[in-house]
Design a protein that fits this description.
This protein is an alpha+beta fold. The protein has helices at about 35-45, 50-60, and strands at about 10-15, 20-25, 25-30. A hairpin with a 5-residue loop joins strand 1 and strand 2.
Length: about 70
């Protein structure tokens, strides 16, 4: 996956410790407690491509089998 790929993920963290992850404006998952804290620790200050990949991994929208670019 190229580093400049935007997968359409955004996230919002609330004061209550809840992290909501959105893809193209639709909520896809909610993280609470330890999972939310771990996500925020990794996402805060990370470059946008890394945040996109992190969101994809957390939501399960990762490794669909079509990542290979073909035979060399």
């Amino acid at each position: 996956m190229p580093a400049t790929t935007d997968l359409g993920f955004t996230y919002r963290a609330s004061r209550e410790g809840v992290v909501r992850i959105f893809r193209y404006g639709k909520e896809v998952t909610v993280l609470r407690g330890k999972a939310a804290l771990q996500f925020l620790a990794k996402a805060e200050g990370a470059p946008p491509p890394e945040v996109q990949l992190l969101c994809a991994k957390v939501t399960g929208n990762y490794k669909r089998g079509n990542e290979r670019s073909g035979k060399p």
